[in-house]
Known about the structure:
Oligomer: homotrimer
Radius of gyration of chain A: 20 Å
Order of helices and strands of chain A: HEHEHEHEHEHEEHEHHEHH
Structural class of chain A: alpha/beta
Strand order of the largest sheet of chain A: 7-6-5-8-9
CATH architecture of the largest domain in chain A: 3-Layer(aba) Sandwich
CATH superfamily of the largest domain in chain A: Aspartate/ornithine carbamoyltransferase
Largest interface: A-C, 35 and 36 residues
Strand content of chain A: 5-15%
Number of strands of chain A: 9
Largest sheet of chain A: 5 strands, parallel
Amino acid sequence: MEVCDWGDVPVGWRRRHLLGLEDMSAGEIELILDQAERFRLILMRGASYESCNRKIPLLSGKTCVNLFFENSTRTKTSFSLAARRLGMDVVDFSASTSSLSKGETFIDTVKNLEAMQVDVIVVRHSCPGTAMLLSENIRGHVLNAGDGAHEHPTQALLDILTIRQRFGKVAGLTVALVGDIAHSRTARSNIWGLRALGANVILCGPSTLVSRQWEALGVKVSYSLDAILDQVDVFNLLRIQFERQVIRPFPSTREYAHLYGMDAARLAKAKTDVLIIAPGPINRGLEVTPDVADGQHSAILDQVTNGVAIRMATLWMCINVKPEN
Amino acid sequence: MEVCDWGDVPVGWRRRHLLGLEDMSAGEIELILDQAERFRLILMRGASYESCNRKIPLLSGKTCVNLFFENSTRTKTSFSLAARRLGMDVVDFSASTSSLSKGETFIDTVKNLEAMQVDVIVVRHSCPGTAMLLSENIRGHVLNAGDGAHEHPTQALLDILTIRQRFGKVAGLTVALVGDIAHSRTARSNIWGLRALGANVILCGPSTLVSRQWEALGVKVSYSLDAILDQVDVFNLLRIQFERQVIRPFPSTREYAHLYGMDAARLAKAKTDVLIIAPGPINRGLEVTPDVADGQHSAILDQVTNGVAIRMATLWMCINVKPEN
Amino acid sequence: MEVCDWGDVPVGWRRRHLLGLEDMSAGEIELILDQAERFRLILMRGASYESCNRKIPLLSGKTCVNLFFENSTRTKTSFSLAARRLGMDVVDFSASTSSLSKGETFIDTVKNLEAMQVDVIVVRHSCPGTAMLLSENIRGHVLNAGDGAHEHPTQALLDILTIRQRFGKVAGLTVALVGDIAHSRTARSNIWGLRALGANVILCGPSTLVSRQWEALGVKVSYSLDAILDQVDVFNLLRIQFERQVIRPFPSTREYAHLYGMDAARLAKAKTDVLIIAPGPINRGLEVTPDVADGQHSAILDQVTNGVAIRMATLWMCINVKPEN
Lengths: 325, 325, 325
């Protein structure tokens, strides 16, 4: 492996944990995006024939635990690959087979992991605030991989990185988050991150999923996708999360697709350089038609690559932050 | 770790994927077997006390994803060990907890894995053609770990390697595949591989499991194991796959063992240097009696070791194949 | 990584397997504790900011298989971390998805793992004697991670290491094992290890869980925790294992806590330097109150760290033992 001399984490970075974007400054977000761009270059280099190594063992000897209390293959795999690309050992701690089912408290489970001298815990839990609770109870580093409907900061960061790559900036752009805002931690993290960087945010969806109360966060609310088509630079098509919904928020998926699905006809009325992103997994034919998902305006797969880069950046920056900062 | 100078993959190898043996030439199969022999030497070297290292990090920095949609500990563990011995990082992508259960299409799941910049996908799926479908949709490398009742190429290659080790050749030998041909991807891959290398193949089992139509592949069909005992150099005792059978293909396991089980009495009537192999997991007392399974004619455990060597060989050769070839 | 010159395993160590403490001499136990102390120093060194590496790749290139037939996140994670810290590759072999469900025998499954050239198998099984059965059937090394209610040697070794760290010795101390002795493999291993090192052992609990027959092992039996409070140097508060109990051994958890739970009132009557340990996962408010579990007499989290060190020591010593010894 190559000699690693990436030096210190960027000046100005002082966080030991990545809990959310709500209180993060534009400067901090830009530090993460810049670092992720550097890691992305390594991720993308070379075809497999060339004997090139896409690993950069900056965190060799460190251990990362994936503590996932909700099913997630995509995010967990992305974090695992990011950690291994940095040379870390990764251990999955499956909640279903864990001591929690034997009556142990959450904090005791976590303190046990800490006592095994792990360096970082990546946590996903259905309860908002889990990542923060964890960070207040252990000496190690905590990265939030989603806490209830609260925050999912790495998802928002990869969305924002994808936007910045396409437009070269984020400030001044108009970004529409379309669909299931009510159940979406991704929406919350995106709103805070995009607002910090100076973007305009429009929330768009049926009134059962988008409340006027969101306007308090400095965003606009629209109940008509057609009405905003020509004002928007980026459409972020949130997943309809059937698995999170207690009551049916719209009469049928056919009606949802008709009113809020992105298709070729709507795309034709949008700006010529409009960007389509989606956190996935996508429901083809519901939030987005296949031709749009696979078309030239879509950056859905770029987002996935950026996800690994964002997770490499935040792992490295949180673990290598200077003490006392 | 030792310095790795294994040079290029063998001249004549031009495949990026290992999908099956149906269209593979004798020369290509021999290249894989020869390479596997070299890796086997490393696998087998030294007792554990000697501070010898059985790892050869030719694929260090590469990432392998195990994408298994059917339960398999044996084959998945063998691939995992092979990949790690070559220095790869291995990530298991469990189908049951994956986004597929959230409505994502198979190709979308795979394209997401690809976008995370993984190098090779090892895939098992109940649907024939899955590995080929995959190979046509991603830039990375695909190794087929079993697709429905179609092909299971690494199993056939390890069977054939075991035969070649014992007899020094394959051409001219008579190999009987005994038992559940109808449900066996292993049988198909074996037939194509053995025929390419010049072996004679006899399929033997009850008529409910062995159709005369197989003769179109250049093999003989026999419904009596006793009738072929003295003609056969290698008996490959296929597993009765109760888990794949919809209807009961024979009246009782007792009758099956009576007619098609390999036991000491039958072994006594076979050639003196006859070889017994079985893909496993074996049903002791059904396809084979314990004394035969554990006896001197059996190479059942050699097959398992050869399995790791074959998987190392095919991983290395597919990943390091020269572009444009 | 640093150059590893840890030389040979300690003179006097001659075991290829760690099956239990019943037949282990004081000298052998001390060798393990001493080695674990050395590994613990590496585990504990440095905060994460310092670019220090807590890995010591003495077993690089070796492969460890976790063969767990009972759910265990804590012990399995501890073994995995220990093996990886020593540079090993770790493969989990999940019993639920294994070939055992396809009718393969236990020994055949294990012989298959062996044929894949793995170096060590860490096994947990509900059947007493599993680890020994395994050790008699394979060439590799076996570490017992719990066999039924028989032995759990690494748990006892980490308990004893924690005691020795606090008191500087074990001989002459009085250690009380409190609670569910009947279902506890940890109790058996502790009794043999503590007795070998010259400690006095008292078993304490309700008569449904503690039989007078235990006295044959050279221990005392008490049915009153209050009666022994001032005689004991170490209380090891065993978990009430609801998941192992067929009949209810006491009227209510409230009664159990009242009679056998360790709380501040009892602690006040104990020796001033009394040590509280518990194998966990603890039932807060049952075996121990939160204030005691988290108080200054408790070494519950030290035990967890010691667990990784003990597993590193036993892995390294068993794998590197000299042949013919």
